[in-house]
Design goal:
- The complex is a heterodimer of chains A (about 525) and B (about 60).
- Chain A is built from 22 helices and four strands.
- With about 525 residues, chain A is mostly helical.
- Chain A has a single domain, classed as Sodium/glucose cotransporter (Up-down Bundle), CATH 1.20.1730.
- A two-stranded antiparallel sheet of chain A has the order 1-2. Chain A has a two-stranded antiparallel sheet with strand order 3-4.
- In chain A, strand 3 and strand 4 form a beta hairpin.
- Chain A is globular.
- The N and C termini of chain A lie far apart (about 60 Å).
- The C terminus of chain A is likely disordered.
- Chain B is mostly helical and about 60 residues long.
- The C terminus of chain B is likely disordered.
- At the A-B interface, helix 2, helix 3, helix 10, helix 11 and helix 16 of A face helix 1 of B.
Chain lengths: ~525, ~60
C-alpha cells in the first residue's frame, strides 16, 4: 500500500466536497452569461482565489519545478516578470479597464466592435488553436505527477476485454481520464458558477499544500545547503541523465542557478518580459476573471492582489525541483525512466509522510481540477461566442445556447484525452506552453493594444497581425517535431518572431488599408466609446 | 564567484512567497466565503424576468 488510510480519507473528502459544491451551483445557472461569467457577480476575494487557483495547476507545478531542476533559483524568472507586469496592469488598468467596461464575454467579441465580424471570427479560431494545443499536455503531466508522487509504476497496463473490442489501458491514462470525468461533470452542469466555488475550495487546499510542502523541502534540504549545493553543481559541471523518453538519453547540467541573464541569455529574458505583459492582458482564462468581476476597479484590485502570487507560482515549486536535483545528484543519478519533469514528484514521495502525502495529493488534484475546469469553460465559451454564434442566422433559444456550450466543454475534454495520450513534448514543458500560447498571444495582444490605443488601426492590419503572429509559433512546433535536436528553432526566436511579425502586420496592414481607403468597418469608424478608453 | 546579490534577492523572494501564500490562505479563505454568500444572495434574489442579458446574437 503506497498511501496510508489517512491519505485516502483526505483525498476522498476533498473530491466529494468539490463535486457536491460544483453540482450544487447548477441551480443558479439560467443563461449563457451566468454559465460563462457567473452573471458578473464575482467580488474581489473570490476573484483572487479563482484567478490564483486557475493559474496554478499540476502542469504549472511540473514545469516550474523543471525550471528549478535545470536552472536553480533563476528558473523563477518568468514568475517574477509576470508579477511585475500584473502589478503594472493592476495599477494603470492598461487594457483590462477598457475591456471590462466594454461588457463583452470574450476578447474576440471586443474585436468585432473595432475591426468587424470577420476579425472576431478569425481571432476566435486563433485563440482556440493556441489555447487548446496549450492545454493538450495538462493531463499527461498531471498524470505523470500523480504516478510518481504516489510511487505507482507508470508503465503498468491493464488488459481490457469488451465484446468485440480488446485493448491495453495504462494506469496513468486511466487516472487522468477519471480525473477529467469528475471535472467535466461539475463544469458542464454549473459553468463559471461551479468553477468559482470549486476554485475557492481548491485555492484553500492547494495553498495549504504548497505552503506545507515548501516549508518541508526547505527544512529537509536546509537553505544554506540548497544555495551551496546549487553553486557546487553548477561550477563542477555535474550532470544527470534524463531517460524519460525511451531510447533517448539527455544530459542535464545545472545552468547558472542565480543570475537569469547567465542562465538564459538576454533574448530569452526579454521574450519572457514581452510574453508576460501579453499573458496578463490577453490570456483568455485570466481575462475571464476580469470580465466576471463586478466592475473595472474590482478587476484592477484582483490583479494587484494576485501579482505577488506569480513569484511563488514559479519560485515555490522551483525549490521542490532544486531539492529533487540535489537529492538525485547525491544519490548518484536519476533512476532509469525518470527525467527532469518527474524527478520532483519522486523526490516529494521520499520526504512526505502519511497525512502530508494525502494533503499534497489533494492539493495537486485541487490545482489540476481548478485549472482544467477554468480552461475547459473558457475555450468552450470562445468557440460558442466567437466561432459558432457569429455564423448562426437565427438566434438560438437560451436552452439551446446552454446546451451548445455544455457540449463544447465535453468535446474539448474528449480531445484532451486523446491528444494528451500520444503527444510527446519536444523540449522543456514551459517552452512548449509558452510557444503554443504565443500562437495567439502575440497577435491578440497586438490587436488589443492597437484596437484600444491606436485610432489608425483597421481590419486589414488586424487580419495581417493574426496570420503573421501565428506563423512563428506554428513553424516552431512543426519544424521541431521533424528535425534533429541540434537544428531545432529556439523558443525565444519563435516567440520574438511572432511578436515582431504581428506588430509589423498591424502597422503595415493598417497603413495599406488606409492608403486604399479600406479596412475600416462601418460600425467602427472610431475607436471604442469614451468610457471604454484607457483610464 | 558566487553572486551574493542574486542569492539575497531570491532568498527574499522565496521566503516572502511562502509568507504571502500563508497570509492569502487565511485572508482570502475568510473573505472569499463572504463573497460567495453575497454572490449567491444576488443570484437568488434575481427575479426570473430580470435576468442579466445573455450575449448579443449575431
Amino acid at each position: 500500500m503506497l498511501l496510508a488510510p489517512i491519505d485516502w480519507i483526505i483525498i476522498v473528502v476533498y473530491m466529494v466536497g468539490c463535486v457536491v459544491a460544483g453540482v450544487w451551483m447548477r441551480r443558479y445557472v439560467r443563461n449563457v452569461e451566468d454559465f460563462a461569467v457567473a452573471g458578473r457577480e464575482m467580488d474581489l476575494n473570490l476573484g483572487v482565489a479563482s484567478l490564483a487557483a486557475t493559474e496554478v495547476g499540476i502542469v504549472t507545478v511540473m514545469y516550474t519545478a523543471e525550471n528549478g531542476f535545470k536552472y536553480g533559483l533563476a528558473g523563477a524568472t518568468p514568475g517574477l516578470l509576470c508579477c511585475v507586469m500584473m502589478l503594472i496592469v493592476g495599477i494603470t488598468g492598461f487594457v483590462i479597464v477598457p475591456m471590462r467596461n466594454a461588457g463583452v464575454i470574450t476578447i474576440p467579441e471586443l474585436f468585432e466592435k473595432r475591426f468587424g465580424k470577420q476579425v472576431r471570427w478569425l481571432a476566435g479560431v486563433v485563440v482556440i488553436l493556441g489555447g487548446v494545443l496549450n492545454m493538450g499536455i495538462f493531463l499527461r503531466l498531471g498524470g505523470d505527477f500523480l504516478m510518481f508522487v504516489t510511487g505507482l509504476d507508470p508503465t503498468v497496463k491493464y488488459h481490457i476485454e469488451l465484446p468485440g473490442l480488446s485493448f491495453n489501458l495504462g494506469m496513468l491514462e486511466a487516472m487522468m481520464t477519471g480525473l477529467l470525468v469528475v471535472v467535466l461533470f461539475y463544469t458542464v452542469l454549473g459553468g463559471m458558477l461551479s468553477v468559482l466555488i470549486t476554485d475557492y475550495l481548491q485555492f484553500i487546499v492547494m495553498g495549504a499544500g504548497i505552503v506545507v510542502t515548501s516549508v518541508l523541502v526547505v527544512w529537509n534540504v536546509g537553505w544554506s545547503n540548497l544555495i551551496h549545493g546549487l553553486w557546487q553543481a553548477h561550477t563542477s559541471g555535474a550532470t544527470l541523465a534524463d531517460t524519460s523518453i525511451a531510447g533517448e538519453t539527455t544530459k542535464i547540467a545545472m545552468a547558472h542557478p542565480f543570475n537569469p541573464i547567465r542562465a538564459f541569455g538576454w533574448g530569452w529574458v526579454t521574450w519572457q518580459a514581452m510574453l508576460s505583459i501579453a499573458i496578463v492582458t490577453t490570456w483568455q482564462t485570466t481575462i475571464a476573471r476580469v470580465l466576471a468581476a463586478r466592475d473595472a476597479s474590482t478587476a484592477k484590485a484582483i490583479y494587484r492582489r494576485t501579482s505577488f502570487y506569480y513569484v511563488g507560482r514559479f519560485g515555490l515549486p522551483g525549490i521542490w525541483g532544486i531539492g529533487a536535483f540535489l537529492y538525485f545528484w547525491h544519490q548518484g543519478g536519476l533512476p532509469q525512466g525518470m527525467g527532469s519533469l518527474t524527478a520532483m514528484p519522486a523526490f516529494l514521495h521520499t520526504i512526505l509522510g502519511p497525512g502530508l502525502l494525502g494533503l499534497m495529493i489533494a492539493a495537486m488534484l485541487a490545482a489540476e481540477m481548478s485549472t482544467d475546469s477554468g480552461y475547459l469553460l473558457t475555450w468552450a465559451t470562445v468557440i460558442y461566442n466567437d466561432i459558432i454564434s457569429p455564423c448562426v442566422r437565427k438566434p438560438l433559444s437560451p436552452w439551446a445556447k446552454l446546451l451548445t456550450v455544455r457540449l463544447l466543454v465535453l468535446a474539448i475534454g474528449l480531445f484532451l484525452v486523446f491528444y494528451g495520450l500520444w503527444y510527446q513534448l519536444p523540449g522543456a514543458a514551459w517552452d512548449y506552453l509558452a510557444v503554443t500560447g504565443n500562437i495567439y498571444l502575440a497577435s491578440l495582444f497586438t490587436l488589443l493594444v492597437a484596437g484600444i490605443y491606436w485610432r489608425g488601426a483597421n481590419s486589414w492590419g488586424a487580419v495581417a497581425a493574426i496570420i503573421l503572429g501565428a506563423v512563428g509559433p506554428i513553424t516552431f512546433l512543426v519544424v521541431n517535431a521533424i528535425v534533429d535536436k541540434a537544428d531545432q528553432i529556439s523558443p525565444e526566436v519563435a516567440g520574438w518572431s511572432a511578436f515582431g511579425m504581428a506588430f509589423a502586420g498591424m502597422i503595415v496592414g493598417s497603413l495599406v488599408g488606409q492608403a486604399l481607403g479600406k479596412g475600416q468597418p462601418a460600425a467602427a469608424k472610431s475607436s471604442l466609446p469614451a468610457k471604454e478608453q484607457a483610464p | 564567484m558566487i553572486d551574493t546579490f542574486f542569492i539575497a534577492f531570491w532568498t527574499v523572494m522565496v521566503f516572502a512567497s511562502i509568507a504571502w501564500y500563508a497570509y492569502l490562505l487565511f485572508h482570502v479563505g475568510i473573505k472569499g466565503s463572504w463573497d460567495i454568500l453575497r454572490m449567491i444572495r444576488a443570484l437568488s434574489g434575481r427575479p426570473d424576468g430580470n435576468q442579466s442579458p445573455g450575449p448579443k446574437e449575431q
